[in-house]
Write a structure and sequence with these properties.
globular, 12 strands, alpha/beta
């Protein structure tokens, strides 16, 4: 949202609301724009109704709107389908002229050159939001559960390196995150960017593929440029699971060596792990825990397999009549299950997932993993304790409910 705010001309008075840290001011505005992800769609639709009742022109965009525009159009005055670098400014002009359209759809692949700087000055409270920047857009892969191919134009694109650096200089925080789907996708481009990033003395994290981390020169340059963490989408520790994910380019036997190589360059590993593939049984949770501990994974982002609309996974489950008759809030990948697993019940999947999280962020596991990793000990300890606290808070809330 700070990024889209950068496109808004001075003829608009604009405020930015982050619901995590601010109350929504339910009053009449000329335009109210909300970004929508699938699990928060029901919540956003309720917000939209309140503002429409107050006489505001409600605009909805984001991943869920692109995936299901017909549904979304029932809850807004205007919707945005696809990337908005060209359509968002067009809408703003049309609105000022009193002729906004109902649908703005991305028809051309937007150029990522000469983009405005995000309006980070509008951010209140939750300062993490100010520490996000992107250098590239798109991903060459086609994982079964991923909806990126539906959300973004098909072409992989890069911003001019000099413009990315100016964007990063604009970030008030010392720490930031590259929001790219695969920051190492074009190694030569990334190396050029890292050379210019090094003098800024920032600390950052990025998402990459495990296979791209075989480039030791790239890892060394990343560390010297301030890299603290790399998020690796490992997803599964079984060949069958990776086949289910359509992620055969991940090779499990290479995981230990890749993690060791990243650690040897002083960078921590945050692994993405998904539970609920058709090949998963109750053994998958303990197997994943043992594998993560044995190779010294510093942290994990564990998720329940979620069939987002527009993905091949969703289509397959719908064809097999395995989608649960629930609203979109079940599609959050963390606290709910939205489909019937093949070799587990939905309850077993949820319980196993929560059991894995509890064991992974236990003192025993933290000590074992960080003793193996031995990089960024303070950062990793703080992060792990934060996850441990969040899990205990979740468990306490669940027991109360």
């Amino acid at each position: 949202m700070p990024y889209l705010a950068g496109f808004v001309p001075s003829s608009f008075e604009i405020i930015l609301i982050d619901e995590y840290s601010q109350q929504i001011p339910f009053e009449k505005f000329d335009v109210v724009a909300v970004t929508v992800n699938t699990p928060n769609a029901p919540h956003v639709y309720r917000i939209a109704k309140k503002f429409q009742d107050l006489g505001s022109w409600v605009v909805l965009g984001g991943p869920h709107i692109t995936l299901l525009p017909e549904e979304a159009s029932k809850h807004a005055n205007t919707i945005f389908v696809g990337e908005a670098e060209e359509t968002w400014p067009s809408f703003l002009t049309d609105f000022l002229e009193g002729k906004p359209e109902e649908v703005y759809e991305c028809k051309n692949t937007p150029d990522l050159k000469d983009l405005p700087l995000p309006r980070r000055d509008l951010i209140v409270g939750h300062k993490f939001t100010s520490g996000a920047v992107f250098a590239t857009r798109g991903c060459p892969h086609n994982c079964s559960y991923c909806c990126l191919k539906k959300i973004y134009c098909h072409h992989f694109r890069k911003r001019p390196v000099e413009e990315v650096i100016e964007d990063i200089k604009n970030i008030p925080n010392k720490h930031f995150v590259f929001w790219d789907d695969n920051f190492f996708a074009d190694a030569e481009y990334t190396k050029k960017l890292l050379k210019m990033l090094k003098p800024l003395k920032k600390k950052w994290a990025a998402q990459v593929t495990a296979q791209s981390c075989k480039d030791e020169e790239l890892l060394c340059m990343a560390k010297k440029a301030g890299c603290l963490y790399l998020f690796l989408g490992l997803e599964s520790f079984s060949k069958e699971g990776l086949k289910d994910a359509n992620k055969s380019f991940n090779i499990i036997e290479q995981y230990p060596k890749i993690v060791e190589l990243i650690h040897s360059n002083g960078i921590s590993v945050q692994a993405g792990v998904v539970f609920g593939f058709d090949s998963d049984t109750m053994a998958v949770f303990d197997d994943a825990l043992e594998f993560c501990e044995s190779i010294g994974v510093d942290g994990v982002t564990a998720s329940i397999l979620t069939p987002f609309p527009g993905t091949s996974l969703y289509d397959a489950l719908e064809k097999d009549c395995r989608l649960l008759d629930v609203d979109w809030s079940y599609y959050n990948g963390k606290t709910r299950v939205s489909f019937e697993p093949k070799q587990l019940t939905s309850s077993e999947l949820l319980e196993g997932y929560n059991s894995f999280r509890g064991k992974f962020y236990s003192w025993r596991s933290i000590v074992r993993r960080l003793s193996k990793s031995r990089v960024n000990i303070i950062y990793n300890l703080i992060m792990n304790l934060g996850y441990m606290k969040a899990y205990k808070r979740f468990q306490s809330k669940t027991r109360v409910e």
